[in-house]
């Protein structure tokens, strides 16, 4: 919880400060945050049965890096979509992130963990050590997903400026069109002095 309280505002502040000077900053911050979080989270999981305090510290800093992207992702979703479609885009972004993250990942980790348990002790009840290791190894899937996400954010940084410019142009064109008087709505002139 504390890492979220620190990470989300820190990401928003970094994004606001850097995007003015460098248009790709939002996507790069998200990508780097995920890639920095990955080794911290992996080491934290590896050290759980060796060191009592190190995993908490590593997870705290890993989660701060992971939480950098929450406000920025919402911002990016809005500025690469034209205004009439922004609420739908934001709703889909929230739906997909929760569907694959909050809702889907515990199930996936559980399925992998159960498969590893069965593979380790196919005929007998698995020991506590086997249960622990199975869950620990299954959780490494989250690190893999973080790396993929970081790579996708860095790829996004190659296109985000052009996409934002396209949306800005579309908004400007729509404003110009709405400001021009329409000839079909103009009152008809009085013909013949009547």
- Can you count the beta strands? 0
Q: What's the architecture in CATH terms?
A: Up-down Bundle
Give the distance, in angstroms, between the N- and C-terminal Cα atoms. 77 Å
**What top-tier CATH class fits best?**
Mainly Alpha
The average pLDDT is 88
Beta-strand share of residues: under 5%
What class do helices, strands and sheet pairing give?
mainly alpha
Estimated helix fraction: over 70%
Question: What would you say this structure looks like, in words?
Answer:
This is Jg16617 protein. The protein is mainly alpha-helical and 194 residues long. It has one domain: Growth Hormone, Chain: A (Up-down Bundle), CATH 1.20.1250.20. The protein is built from 7 helices and no strands. Helix 2 runs antiparallel to helix 3. The radius of gyration is 25 Å and the shape is elongated. The N and C termini lie far apart (77 Å). The model has no long low-confidence stretch (mean pLDDT 88).
Helices and strands, with pairings:
Layout: H1 2-19, H2 25-46, H3 54-67, H4 69-79, H5 86-120, H6 128-156, H7 160-179
Helix pairs in contact: 1-2, 1-3, 1-4, 2-3, 2-4, 2-6, 4-5, 5-6
Core attributes:
mainly alpha, 194 residues, 7 helices, Growth Hormone, Chain: A
